[in-house]
Design brief:
The chain is of the alpha/beta class. 41% of the residues lie in helices and 14% in strands. The chain contains 15 helices and eleven strands.
C-alpha cells in the first residue's frame, strides 16, 4: 500500500484483535478509511466492511481493497495490467506538472504514468476493475517517487527509488468476506455516520490541521484525471485551498467529533487517536462516554518519517531537530459494560484469552 502519514500498519493486529473479541460483530463501518489498511485487514478476517472517505483517491483504494472481490475482478485486472504495462510512454499533464514544474518523479516515469492513465480513461471499465488498476498505478508511482512520504514537497536530491522503473503489480485483492460484500463510499464523515449502519464503527479522524488532500494531492489528481489548475512549488490542486473539513479545524473539531459520535449507527465504537491531537485523552473519553463504557488501549508509536529526518531550511541544510521521536497511539473501545461483553464473548466462544484480556 502507498506510504501514508497516520497509517495504522503497526496497530492493525491490536485493532483486529479487539474487533474479533466482541460479540455479534459482523459489519464494520470505517468512517475515515484512508488507504483502507484497516478495512483490508478486517475483510481478511471475515468481516464485512463499509469503508468511507471524502477523498476520491481513498474511495478508490477502498473500492479495490474492501469492495472488490478476487473472484470477480482478478482475471480481468491481471490481463489489463499486463496490457497497460506495455503501453508506450507519452508525456502529458502528469509529466509537465509533477516532473518538470515540480520534481516528484523522473520524467521517464511520469511519461509512463501519463500513457497508462490515458489508456485506463479510454476503456470505460467496470468501477471495481478500474479501482484495481488505478490502485496498481498509484502504488507503482509511489514506489518511484522522491518524497519523504507526503506530497507537500519533494526532495532536493533524487531519492534512490526514483531511478527505478515504474512497474505495475496486482494489488492484494481479497476473496469476499464471510460476513458479506464490502462497499466503498465517498461521503462527508458526518453524512456517512448518519447513513451507514453496522455492528461496530471504526473512527480514525485527522489529528491536526494538515489536510490529507494537500498531503496526497497527486493521488487525487491521478484518480480524478481532471487536469486541475495548480499552485505553489508542490503544484497542489487549486481545490486544496477550497475544500476543507471541520475535522482539520481545532476550534471546530470537538463539536464535529461530538456530532459524529452521536450520529454513529453502531452499538460498538473503536476510536483511534493520538496524544498529539487536537484533544487530550480525558476530553476525548468524556466525548465518548455518553455512548457507553470506555476502555483505552495505549501503544507507543514511532513518529512520521519527517520527524526522524529533522528540521531543514529551504536549502536542505539541517537547522534543528524535533522534540521527540515517539508518541502514544490510543484506542478507545466504547460499548456495553465490559463484564457483559466478556460473558457474551465467552458464551459464543468468539474470543481467545488474549483477546478477552483486551476487554478487562
Amino acid at each position: 500500500m502507498i506510504k501514508y502519514i497516520g497509517s495504522k500498519r503497526t496497530l492493525v493486529p491490536a485493532i483486529v484483535d479487539i474487533v474479533r473479541s466482541l460479540p455479534d460483530v459482523q459489519t464494520v463501518v470505517d468512517l475515515f478509511s484512508g488507504t483502507s489498511r484497516v478495512g483490508h485487514a478486517l475483510k481478511a478476517r471475515g468481516f464485512r466492511v463499509l469503508a468511507n472517505d471524502h477523498n476520491a483517491y481513498a474511495a478508490t483504494l477502498a473500492r479495490c481493497y474492501v469492495q472488490a472481490d478476487r473472484d470477480d475482478v482478478a482475471t480481468t485486472a491481471q490481463r489489463l495490467l499486463s496490457e497497460l504495462g506495455a503501453v508506450p510512454a507519452r508525456p502529458g499533464y502528469f509529466t509537465e506538472t509533477f516532473c518538470e514544474r515540480s520534481r516528484f518523479f523522473q520524467p521517464r516515469n511520469g511519461a509512463r504514468v501519463d500513457a497508462i492513465r490515458e489508456a485506463i480513461a479510454a476503456k470505460s471499465l467496470d468501477p471495481e476493475v478500474e479501482a484495481v488498476v488505478l490502485t496498481s498505478l498509484m502504488e507503482a508511482a509511489d514506489r518511484v517517487d522522491s518524497t519523504t512520504g507526503v506530497q507537500m514537497a519533494y526532495l532536493k536530491a533524487w531519492a534512490p527509488r526514483a531511478f527505478n522503473d515504474l512497474e505495475l503489480r496486482m494489488p492484494d485483492v481479497l476473496p469476499r468476506a464471510a460476513g458479506g460484500k464490502g462497499q466503498s463510499f465517498e461521503l462527508d464523515a458526518l453524512e456517512a455516520a448518519a447513513t451507514l449502519e453496522g455492528d461496530l464503527a471504526y473512527i480514525d479522524p485527522p489529528y491536526n490541521q494538515h489536510k490529507y488532500l494537500g498531503n496526497y494531492h497527486i493521488w487525487e489528481t491521478l484518480v480524478r484525471w481532471d487536469h486541475p489548475e495548480v499552485y505553489g512549488t508542490a503544484c497542489k490542486r487549486i481545490d486544496c485551498r477550497q475544500r476543507s473539513s471541520v475535522f482539520n479545524s481545532k476550534p471546530r473539531f470537538v463539536d464535529a467529533l461530538r456530532s459524529l459520535v452521536e450520529r454513529v449507527r453502531a452499538p460498538w465504537l473503536l476510536v483511534s487517536f493520538n496524544d498529539e491531537g487536537f484533544v487530550a485523552r480525558e476530553e476525548l473519553k468524556a466525548i465518548l462516554t455518553p455512548r457507553g463504557h470506555v476502555e483505552i488501549v495505549e501503544r507507543d508509536y514511532r513518529r512520521y518519517v519527517g520527524a526522524q529526518i529533522g528540521i531543514h531550511n529551504p536549502r536542505g541544510e539541517k537547522v534543528g531537530k524535533v522534540s521527540h521521536l515517539h508518541n502514544k497511539e490510543l484506542l478507545f473501545l466504547v460499548g456495553p459494560d465490559p463484564d457483559r461483553a466478556r460473558a457474551a464473548a465467552e458464551d459464543r466462544h468468539h474470543a481467545t484469552p488474549r483477546q478477552l484480556a483486551l476487554l478487562d
